[in-house]
Write a structure and sequence with these properties.
Number of helices: 18
Number of domains: 3
CATH architecture of the largest domain: 3-Layer(aba) Sandwich
CATH topology of the largest domain: Rossmann fold
CATH class of the largest domain: Alpha Beta
Radius of gyration: 24 Å
Largest sheet: 6 strands, mixed
CATH superfamily of the largest domain: P-loop containing nucleotide triphosphate hydrolases
Number of strands: 22
Helix content: 25-40%
Distance between the termini: 55 Å
């Protein structure tokens, strides 16, 4: 007997000025099913999810929920219907607690249902977190949490509505393998309870483990829906991008004789780092691997002056430097691409042109009287858009309207424009699809070939192995190993990352 159809999207289209985001797309979801939705950035996946949640209004087509046509007028109506969505770009209030974020607008009250019952709120939240096996403190402010733990809050919030349809847009993008496995157990429980899950992910290797069917979008159009058991990842990629992408390449460039551009000795911080030492060579991609909390991002924050250094030294091109702020880092030729582009990498309410030009205004785009050379900023930004294949109607497009992957490319563009010699990429392909990843990989190798020196931090070991000439492995704030790519594999890196190396 076929499962009940919970949701049917038929012939839906949506356009924006200069862009047709969706054109006649289709997808359906059954009870007790995980239906994966995949496609490159800009394929229309997130646009469809925003239509389902009432953020956008469709131009045409029909949406049927539990056999009845619906037009969702807003997120509240979606939640009331039973459609919960975990968006790729998190929408949490940093000054509120975990409990307050999860049950915002639905808080338990007492004394004639007027006053907030804080004890009941915490108790209710703790039960939900325990049921989901999420290691969160209901009383902790969300702004104090890591990106991964904020993602857990979003997951808990969506599930707390107890709806029939749950849409997960890149839910594992910030999670460790252990956290991802825990999420998959939660999803399995939702399936057994008869819920339907639409699962959007760029981590295609997850699809065989988690999904029952897969629908592919390309350039805002429906391509096909297939049973997961009847297809392969290679076939899915071909449908997504129409070309083969090699995923097992290793860097060919040997940088062992190159000049040392950056030398870090005995670096320590009050928060975590202890006696961290390494060097970075010209034209090298130096990968940083390790489990969550190992200290990889903390090294980057210390190098750019965000986290104060309590001991150690930083030497650039043979000269010891003192870096007390990100501005000092930029002046010394260090550019940092944060893993959280929304909070630290972009001004989302500004346009693409402004974001790309901002770090270089004084150096490149201001005349002797202090006026900005607007024509030069525009032409430079347009060149960057073309070089990086940023999908945008124009450089005057507001950055928040771009897909997550294209926002990431804008961050890369601003540091390339600034002509920094040392580039730190923290999770450079987080939230980026397989085709765009391939473009970023080629870009990083091209930058290295041009003589740029790159520190690349990634939680994905295949990515570290594909990109890095050498790999620094960390555990609990210390360097536990530095390995040449030719001597490395995932097993070796995990042994160092867990301090099990003999």
């Amino acid at each position: 007997m076929a499962s009940e159809q919970l949701l049917v999207v038929e012939g839906v289209s949506k356009g924006f000025p200069g862009v047709q985001a969706l054109e006649n797309v289709h997808i359906d979801l059954r009870a007790g099913e995980v239906h994966a939705l995949v496609g490159e950035n800009g394929a229309g996946k997130s646009t469809l999810m925003k239509i389902l949640s009432g953020i956008y209004t469709k131009d045409s087509g029909t949406i049927t929920y539990k056999g009845k046509p619906v037009d969702v007028s807003g997120p509240l109506e979606a939640q009331q219907l039973g459609i919960s969505i975990i968006h790729q770009e998190m929408n949490l209030m940093p000054d509120l607690t975990v409990a307050e974020n999860i049950f915002i607008g639905r808080e338990p009250k007492h004394l004639a249902n007027i006053f907030l019952d804080k004890n009941a709120l915490v108790t209710q939240t703790q039960k939900l977190l325990d049921d989901l096996n999420l290691p969160l403190d209901p009383k902790e402010k969300v702004g104090n949490l890591t990106v991964a733990k904020q993602q857990m809050v979003e997951i808990a919030k969506a599930i707390s509505y107890n709806g029939s349809v749950i849409v997960m847009d890149e839910p594992t993008s910030s999670l460790t393998p252990t956290e991802t496995a825990a999420l998959f157990k939660i999803i399995d429980g939702l399936k057994k309870a008869g819920k339907g899950v639409i699962y959007i992910s760029h981590r295609l290797e997850e699809l065989n483990e988690i999904s029952d069917r897969i629908t592919v979008f390309r350039d805002g159009q429906f391509v096909d829906t297939v049973k997961t058991a009847d297809t392969t990842i290679a076939k899915i990629i071909a449908m997504m991008i129409g070309r083969d992408v090699k995923q097992d390449l290793r860097p060919e460039v040997d940088s062992s004789k190159s000049d040392i551009v950056l030398k870090v000795e005995g670096l320590s911080t009050r928060k975590l780092l202890k006696d961290v030492s390494f060097d970075l060579k010209r034209g090298e991609i130096l990968g940083f691997a390790g489990l969550m909390g190992a200290g990889r991002t903390e090294v980057a924050l210390a190098l750019i002056g965000k986290d104060p250094i309590t001991a150690g030294s930083i030497t650039i091109s043979g000269k010891e430097v003192k870096i007390h702020s990100p501005a000092d880092a930029v002046r010394n030729g260090i550019g940092y691409l944060s893993e959280d582009r929304k909070r630290f990498g972009l001004l989302l309410i500004q346009d693409v042109n402004f974001n790309i030009a901002l770090p270089s205004l004084k150096k490149l785009f201001t005349n002797g009287f202090g006026f900005i050379k607007t024509s030069l900023t525009r032409s430079t930004s347009e060149d960057s858009v073309q070089q990086l294949s940023i999908r945008t109607p124009s450089v005057k497009q507001t950055t928040k309207n771009l897909s997550g992957g294209n926002q990431q490319k804008v961050v890369i563009a601003k540091w390339l424009t600034r002509e920094c010699d040392i580039l730190i990429f923290d999770e450079p392909t987080r939230g980026i699809d397989v085709g765009a990843k391939d473009e970023v990989y080629k870009l990083l190798h091209a930058l290295a070939a041009q003589g740029k020196s790159i520190i690349m931090i990634s939680s994905e070991l295949p990515e570290v192995l594909r990109l890095s000439n050498r790999i620094v492995v960390m555990c609990e704030g210390r360097v536990t190993g530095i390995v040449k790519n030719s001597d490395a594999d995932q097993n070796v890196l995990m042994q160092y990352a867990t301090k099990h190396r003999n």
